[in-house]
Amino acid sequence: MVNDHLSDFVTRIRNGYQARLPEIQYPPVKTVWEMAQVLSKEGYVGEVKKTEEGLSIKLKYTAKKPAIMGIKRVSKPGVRRYSGIKDIPKVWGGLGINILSTPKGVLSERQAKKLNSGGEILAQVW
């Protein structure tokens, strides 16, 4: 039984890229689905589908190199990290993204800035 689905999801993505898997599977969890949608819109993973078994996320490679160089869970169950819109930290000098859980849903930092909505920093991707 998994207590922190987002940390498990981040680890599965990292392990999937290290093992050069074409896709990963994950049980149907709403927050994970929303985070996978953000990763797909930002171009870090391929197609995200709901299947009978759960979620199917195609991993993306460019010239045999993973689209994600690194992914890290920031806000954890023991230590939550919140940020206002003006205080969102840069990831890799602006080359990566933060994924936030806001009152308007799970968003990338670019979307959050457009909607002027801060929130909990779930993960960083570069």
Radius of gyration: 14 Å
Q: What is the CATH top level name of the largest domain?
A: Alpha Beta
CATH architecture of the largest domain: 2-Layer Sandwich
Number of helices: 3
Poorly predicted tracts of residues? none
According to CATH, the fold-level topology of the largest domain is Ribosomal Protein S8, Chain: A, domain 1
- Quaternary structure annotation: single chain
Number of domains: 2
List the SSEs and their pairings.
Blueprint: H1 5-18, E1 23-26, H2 30-41, E2 45-50, E3 55-59, E4 61-62, E5 65-66, E6 71-73, E7 82-83, E8 97-102, E9 105-108, H3 109-114, E10 119-125
Antiparallel strand pairs: 1-3, 2-3, 4-5, 6-10, 7-10, 8-9, 8-10
3D structure, described in words:
There is one protein chain. By secondary structure, this protein is of the alpha+beta class. It has two domains: 5-66, Ribosomal Protein S8, Chain: A, domain 1 (2-Layer Sandwich); 71-125, Dna Ligase, domain 1, CATH 3.30.1490.10. The protein has helices at residues 5-18, 30-41, 109-114; strands at 23-26, 45-50, 55-59, 61-62, 65-66, 71-73, 82-83, 97-102, 105-108, 119-125. The protein starts with a helix and ends with a strand. 25% of the residues are buried. It holds the Pfam family Ribosomal_S8. This is Small ribosomal subunit protein uS8. InterPro entries: Ribosomal_uS8, Ribosomal_uS8_CS, Ribosomal_uS8_sf. GO terms for molecular function: rRNA binding; structural constituent of ribosome.
Core attributes:
126 residues; alpha+beta; Ribosomal Protein S8, Chain: A, domain 1; Dna Ligase, domain 1; 2 domains; 5-stranded antiparallel sheet; 3-stranded antiparallel sheet; 3 helices; 10 strands; 25% helix; 33% strand; globular
